[in-house]
Amino acid sequence: MGLLSSKKSTNQNINQSTNTSNSMGVSGDNSGLMLSGISGTVTMTDHGAMEAAGEMASDAMTLGSNALASNSSALNDALTFGLETFNGALNSLGGMASNQSHLASQSMQLANSVNASANTGGASDVGQQNTRVMMAFAAVIGLVLLVVVLKR
Q1: What is residue 61's predicted lDDT score, i.e. its pLDDT?
Q2: Residue 140 CB coordination number (10 Å)
């Protein structure tokens, strides 16, 4: 190992150090998350909050759908009731109009009768009553004759 030797020896020392500081200096926008003093792995979790929020949204959609179906049924029932009531009212009005027509016809007959009686000085009323009496008298005589014939 002399001066002219072809073999060389090499020594190398590597010092590796990690400097860790638990202090942090921040300037500017501080709206984010900052971790200090952690040299390992950081695991972030929402502890199932997103899954629960999804289930809650699904339940809300189901509730909304059921509410719409129920309201649709109630609306159909209300419209059916309204239509039936309207048709019933129309039928009643038709019946009342028919009754009014019949009553008007009877009123006209009475007015004509009163007018005829007034024009004849009551003679037409007396004539009608006489006709009725004569018919009753004829019926009684007919019955008497029938009884006499049957007894023989």
Answers
A1: 93
A2: 10
- DSSP calls for 20-37: --------S---S----S
Residue matched to tokens 């109630």:
74
* Number of alpha helices (DSSP H) and beta strands (DSSP E) in the chain: 2, 0
Within a 10 A sphere around the Cβ of 17, how many other Cβ atoms? 5
pLDDT value at position 30?
67
pTM of the entire predicted model:
0.33
Any residues with CB less than 8 A from the CB of 24 and at least 6 apart, and which?
34, 36
Return the biggest CA–CA distance within the chain. 189
Half-sphere exposure of 134 (CA within 13 A, CB side): 6
Residue owning tokens 């921040």: 26
Distance CA 137, CA 140 (A): 5
Neighbours of 102 (CB within 10 A): 10
